[in-house]
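User: My advisor, Dr. K., asked me to get a structural model of this assembly before our group meeting. I'm new to this, so sorry if the format is off. These are the inputs:
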Amino acid sequence: MRFTITHTDTNSLARVGEINTAHGAINTPCFMPVGTQASVKTLTNSLVEEQGAEIILANTYHLYLRPGHNIIAQLGGLHQFMRWQKPILTDSGGFQIYSLASLRKVTPAGVFFQSHIDGSSHLLSPELAIEAQCAFGVDIMMCLDECTPYPATSEQAEQSLTLTAQWAKRCKEAKGENPNALFGIVQGGMYPDLRRKSVASLLEIGFDGYALGGLSVGEPKELMKEMVETAAPMLPADKPRYLMGVGFPADIVHAVGNGIDMFDCVIPTRCARNGLLFTNEGNIAIGSSRYLKDKNPLDNTCDCYTCRNFSRAYLRHLYVSGEITAMVLNTIHNLRFYMRLMEGIRTAIKTGAFAELSNKFTQK
Amino acid sequence: MRFTITHTDTNSLARVGEINTAHGAINTPCFMPVGTQASVKTLTNSLVEEQGAEIILANTYHLYLRPGHNIIAQLGGLHQFMRWQKPILTDSGGFQIYSLASLRKVTPAGVFFQSHIDGSSHLLSPELAIEAQCAFGVDIMMCLDECTPYPATSEQAEQSLTLTAQWAKRCKEAKGENPNALFGIVQGGMYPDLRRKSVASLLEIGFDGYALGGLSVGEPKELMKEMVETAAPMLPADKPRYLMGVGFPADIVHAVGNGIDMFDCVIPTRCARNGLLFTNEGNIAIGSSRYLKDKNPLDNTCDCYTCRNFSRAYLRHLYVSGEITAMVLNTIHNLRFYMRLMEGIRTAIKTGAFAELSNKFTQK
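Assistant: The format is fine. Below is the predicted structure of the whole assembly, which you can bring to the meeting.
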């Protein structure tokens, strides 16, 4: 993996770059649609690609449990299995254990947990997290981390970042000669000094990129922004910086201004399934009766299949009728909206217009 | 609407033809994917068209209740509303009242029923059924009929066909100068003489096409086939003959051999959502663990997006994981399977190979 920065903003830490992988290039800042179980929910791969996605994220936790990393390896790896030929990043499973699994117990060896599918017991160690991701054959792997909950005392946060650093070291060792990239994850809760400590411990090990973890876990939005402002600039400038699990468009623009290059979030896809659609004129709850006879497209400025073809009235009808096609059409739109957002961000940085774009989002 | 027969089979009543409508041509024998609520479940229109569909069926009952025919008319008619530019046929609503609505009461005036959505009370009269379908602006409308249940005594069946004939007359009158086509529906239960009587009463009124209703309503398969063999040849040869709500591939091949030109059925789409997939080598229950590591496509001979790209192992994974994308990919395949079936039937009739094709299905 190579990372090249091609443009930097003069008024902020925003930058435009390119990550090159064996499966192609990713223009940054980028948004990674979430394909938890090896599919971006409701869409075919063709549709994901059509919206402009250059990389997707899949979840190690889910794919480790089902169908299993060994089976995916036997079937030729994750790219071949799901027939997605562009880059893939997998998280390490840590966050899903934190949010989904029951009876989890964190020990130095790893995380004991029960599957949310069948209740079976598992130990996810740093070594197993890497083994699974190597078996998937993904372009970017993530270290197993312990996601510090919010709120957490500084003692808890420190314990958690220390464990995360130990695991990160073991992940790096477990990776060995595997040519794919491995990113470290910064923890440290909402404590700037602990974030700094976490970064330092990861830098000592050395990774291909660095992610901010443990954000967007229930803290107030202002606190998240504060932590991004504080922690993002601590990450080395010559490596991709990834803000995990974020976020709404305004959060993304804010983080880009603080030097973040990569994002993933279920917001565009999950909101689409629930009838919440993003437009340049604000959000649309498509189930509302106000759209009963609305002949307009969702967003006049959008070039997606949904906006090119269908009225709000039709999309409302499908949504209130519980049609699965509603979820498909809505997901197409929201995903395209996010992809256009990222395209707009990159163009703005290149043309010196990022401050202006950023102000628009701040005002909204 | 014009109907031209271009080929007739020498060994059976099968024929190839073309129905020409204001929205384009339909090659017959044809299969109409069901788009109950103005969308073929799980698919975008592009995907429906890509599978080869030349006409779809929508349900008057559903669209009358939601969003309402007046709203669809205000939005430019059903083609414009759902952005499907090829022909559309709507049923009259009679069958859905029979199968979905509660507290229905059939009177000479029409059918009183309560909506399955909100319990509201409605009277669907022959005039209203036509008013709604005219408002939709569909290419082919169907007369309101009373679907005779199975089993029914000959008295019940006769009563039902008499009412259906009276309603058919009122439908024809209600249509007035509307240029779109109107088909009559033959009832008569499982009684050949009553089927003959029903046909005679419809012929007296005169329609653009004739449908066999009241089949595939719970009767044994052999009885359905017997009734198709008996009743299909009673329908005038120079008009399209439509067997409503049928069926499995073998049922379709059998009915084509008895002179049927048009079919609709939820089987390909519903089975797809439930993981039952059709192939030339037999059906596949994709959830089965036997496909866990199966690298083969569903059907080696199929040219659909799903078969061109994905393994059974991947499709099984998506299905058992409850991914909506599984429903989309499965529906693409099953619909394409049906479209290829119809293409194969038409080619076989044209090339004198229909008897051979028919034998294959009989042996299966």
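One thing worth pointing out at the meeting: Chain B touches chain A at residues 37-46, 62, 66-67, 71, 74-76, 81-83, 292-293, 295, 305, 309-311, 313-314, 317-318, 320-321, 323-329, 332 (CB under 8 Å).

User: Perfect, thanks a lot.
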